[in-house]
Design goal:
Blueprint: H1 3-18, H2 23-30, H3 34-41, H4 53-62, H5 90-99, H6 102-126
Length: 127
């Protein structure tokens, strides 16, 4: 993956995690138009745009992230296969993961993180 793809995937995770998936709220925070954000995250739009160096640094600054954070390949989590002893019900999930593109995987990871964080917060409040 190149730097531009890392930025795109990390941006999708940032929007999902910190803005509840709301691109418009993210756009307001960063000071850009919602269509611009859509072009940044799109895999298929005819007029998709790469996130420039200046835009990446602006996003990081406006979202309280350290400079270079958006470029980090280590934020894009690699797929870790489950051991063969995993439940047969997992086979369908693994097949879907194998055929999913990076966009779908990033969204699924961001959703899972947000769901787990909300569950932990809920459990902590209940005790």
């Amino acid at each position: 993956m190149d730097t531009y793809e890392n930025r795109r995937i990390n941006l999708m995770q940032l929007i999902a995690r910190d803005f509840g998936g709301n691109q418009t709220a993210f756009a307001r925070q960063v000071g850009v138009s919602a269509p611009q954000v859509n072009r940044w995250v799109s895999e298929t739009a005819a007029d998709k745009r790469r996130i420039s160096e200046a835009s990446a640094r602006q996003i990081e600054m406006k979202c309280g992230k350290p400079s270079g954070w958006l470029d980090g390949a280590d934020l894009v989590e690699p797929w870790q296969p489950l051991p063969p002893s995993a439940s047969p019900d997992i086979a369908l999930l693994l097949s879907a993961w194998d055929i999913a593109g990076p966009h779908s995987r990033a969204l699924a990871l961001a959703w899972a993180r947000a769901t787990l964080a909300a569950h932990k917060d809920h459990e902590g409040a209940a005790t």
